[in-house]
DNA sequence: GGAATATATTTCAAGCTTAAAATTTTAGGT
DNA sequence: ACCTAAAATTTTAAGCTTGAAATATATTCC
């Protein structure tokens, strides 16, 4: 039943958003479940470890929260648990006694490497249908949502990631 | 030919997922912020009210949690606050003293109608660039993520290298 | 130096979320 | 009736998340 009223562009956009949310949530829920069941871990922990893994010299609390776009207080708790688990440690910052530098321990690095490999496999599995062309099409459309262009722009491709 | 490594389909899928998550999270965060700042409400409350608004006769707790795909205990708390606010009320289910039927109050219906109108406007604004063709393309691609058509493994193309 | 301001971080209160355990009530089987 | 299993819901414990208030330290400006 195609009961779509003619001029409901607005409703169509609303439906699109709901589908986008549903898709993202479904994948996210599956990742959380697997991290939990197979590794006793969580997505927030994974995200923090991921950020730390890219900076072997460590990151300040505020750098972590900026990178992950979450609040400072949030990071405090996650790092706290990471430290308890022996996956991270806090170092003093010479010259600034307010700040901390957080760094993965050897155990943390090792654990993250395993997690990351599995994680990539899971995503690869969940998006298994997508070939290069579809990936680019979807990526470009999402980019358009994220960064609306003011005027029509004939872009070839080549937006870069961060 | 950008410097994309040859066999990184797997990495490309990973990047795609990251972008999907980023896009969805950005919109969601904006919605939460506006619900909070302009209406003193939250997305979970909005979701529950939305479900209730579609069933004027009310819904059982378990029906709400099934519809929204969240846990029972979760719904308990949200409905609790909705009732405190005078937006919902609980009715007995004749013949089953275990169950509750939750229903929007008149005030709740009115409040939701306003919220819903604003909400649609926000989405329409955030997805303002998208016309019917783009909506359909994006919708179809998301559908493919959500419900992969499992065809036989036919392609021998890309076993990925790592 | 000392006051005001800015920065880095934690603490707090409130709400969301889940899985698992507990409660209450209903339904079945004997 | 009695016993057991199933169903609807709440409670609990733990963790995530935020914005705002609180701490502690650093910097800037007279």
Automatic annotation (TrEMBL), chains A, B:
Domain of life, source organism: Bacteria
Annotated ranges, domain HTH marR-type: 13-147
Pfam families given in the database record: MarR_2 (PF12802)
GO MF: DNA-binding transcription factor activity
Lineage, highest ranks first: Bacteria, Pseudomonadati, Pseudomonadota, Alphaproteobacteria, Hyphomicrobiales
SUPFAM superfamilies cross-referenced by the UniProt entry: Winged helix' DNA-binding domain
Full protein name: Winged helix-turn-helix transcriptional regulator
A biological process from GO: response to stress
């Amino acid at each position: 039943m195609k009961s779509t009223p003619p001029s409901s562009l607005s409703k169509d956009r609303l439906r699109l958003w709901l589908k986008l949310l549903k898709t993202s949530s479904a994948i996210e829920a599956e990742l959380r479940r697997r991290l939990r069941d197979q590794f006793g871990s969580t997505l927030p922990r994974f995200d923090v470890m991921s950020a730390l893994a890219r900076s072997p010299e460590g990151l300040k609390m505020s750098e972590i929260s900026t990178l992950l776009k979450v609040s400072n207080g949030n990071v405090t708790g996650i790092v706290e648990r990471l430290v308890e688990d022996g996956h991270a440690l806090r170092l003093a910052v010479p010259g600034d006694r307010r700040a901390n530098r957080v760094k993965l321990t050897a155990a943390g690095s090792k654990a993250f490497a395993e997690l990351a490999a599995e994680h990539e496999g899971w995503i690869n599995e969940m998006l298994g249908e997508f070939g290069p062309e579809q990936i680019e099409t979807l990526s470009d459309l999402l980019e358009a949502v994220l960064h609306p262009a003011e005027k029509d722009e004939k872009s070839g491709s080549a937006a870069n990631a961060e």
